[in-house]
Amino acid sequence: LHSLTEKIMKAFFLVSGLAIILFLGGILFTLLSNSIPALNEIGIGPFFAPDVWRPGAFGEPTYSINNFILGTFMVTFGALAFAVPLGIAAAAYLSEIASPWERELFKPIVEVLAGIPSVVLGFIGLVVLGPIIAKIFNLPNGINALNGAILVGIMALPTIITLAEDAITAVPKEYRHASLALGGTRWQTIWKVTVPAAFSGITAASMLGMGRAIGETMTVLMVTGNMIARPSSFFDSVRTLSANIAIDIGDVAYQSIHFHAIFFVGLVLFMITFVVNLLADILINRNPEVNK
Amino acid sequence: MNQKRWLTVLGFVLLVSMLLVAGCGQQAAPDASTDAPEEDTAEETQEAVSIMIAGSDSEVNLVTRMAEEYMKVNPNVSIAVTGGGSGVGITALIDGTIDIANSSRPMKDEEMEALKTNSGLDTCAVRFAVDGVAVVVNENNPVTSLTVDQIGAIYRGEITNWSEVGGEDLAITLYGRQSTSGTYVFFMEKVVQADYSPEMRNMPGTSDIVESVTGDAGGIGYAAIGYATKEGIKALEVAADASSEAFTPVVLENVTSGDYPLTRPLYQYSAGEPSEALLDFYLYEVSEAGQAIVLEEGFYPITAADIDFNKAALE
Known about the structure:
- By secondary structure, chain A is mainly α.
- Helices cover 75% and strands 1% of the residues of chain A.
- In chain A, helix 3 (66-97) packs parallel to helix 6 and helix 3 packs across helix 9 (199-215).
- The longest helix of chain A is centred in the first third of the chain and has 41 residues, at 2-42.
- Chain B is α/β, with parallel strands linked by helices.
- Chain B has a five-stranded mixed beta sheet. A five-stranded mixed beta sheet of chain B has the order 8-7-9-5-10, sandwiched between helices. A three-stranded mixed beta sheet of chain B has the order 6-11-12.
């Protein structure tokens, strides 16, 4: 009987594993097959031409997404610029400094942070963070890339903290003992020994946080203003790829060129996140003895 | 390890049971709905009716309020109202997923054709309120009136500083809606008459525009009149051209008479001859009680011309 259960469970997990591959393949196939009509009609060049995205134009429709790619990277890297240092510091604190009860207190808080609905964060960005940014930088409004980057950074923090903490905790005790035995202070041990030893895991944590940030839609949609022009700085309004999909999908005529063009935008977004996740995966596997 | 495995199994069992419950819920629903109205004797129609409405963000508050009041009198009817933009509503109507599409712009010919091809039904249109699209600025902005041409130039990006239209030396920030919005389309065709400036912020909802202009001294936005009387913003007086008088949309007569240049009717669309339930709801909206709600929500009652227009659908 025991071996039967074993077999059934084995088959079940195999099917689950295969289903994931099937879903991924299905998504990629849908994106590709639905993008092709747009590529046939428009060609790939106009998507990246120095122009704007204007499918419902008064005159000729244009479909350039280069400003949105720039916008996506601005929000994403802006988010990482503060979420990564903060996340690593928090992770080092949790695994190296915090006493057990502090850890018990902070870990659930980090998890709660991950559970805040993005629309709530977006609203906070619009009515609280926006005016603060406007005031600090003396701008007419806080509807800009910086606002989106800060909020997305907050959303990526839990991912980065949790994974980076795992990586730091996994550094063998001997490393720390050796450093302390040589007369290193605690700070030197964390900064010069433990964190560098967990480097590949921390990088992977950041990359996965980035994957989270790139696709974030609702928050960004609410606070970045979504203008179609090329942004000139972080204080300018931007539109991200994901926001563009969300904005346009609502009223697009089924099977129109515009409809297929949106799928192509989705394909580009998918490619970007795919590459990021792939890089993260390679980094996790590069240093296996530390990340066990 | 063993514990982890059991957690996975438990998770899977939970997921499956959730799916099963959801499935049962769908099957059980018709039974429940035939049971419920038995107790209700007020209406001649005993059957429970549900009406799905979606579309215009300008109309969503007004129609939600209408639906609430209507359901108080007709407890056997349940009406769900959601926003998303006129384009979203019309697309959903064409796809057959809703009963009524709220739209702050007239349905386009190709959209009516699409409905005809999809369902074989003609479009039924009702005008249930009048709106004056307000051009709103921050309450501290000294500018009080503009012409349609000036507003168009501002939104085309040709005028970028308030000093060019008699205001302070302050850069203009453009706030507008997204292409799903009926107001976006109305404003583009009636005022901008070209593409919007690429610098325009595309906000997801009317209240986001109002919120932004409240905080932006140089901001300009447009909003249905029901949103334009909020604190922190003011609705500009608008003149049809340089030689005409400017009118404010916050006065009923200016809008219903058509003196205010950005006057428009608010529509509801459904497919084919309206069912008894839809007809009854339409008639409630254009009744005295319905029109009183229109006024309370900051919009304006329909005019004789609109009543004429509605005859095709309601008689």
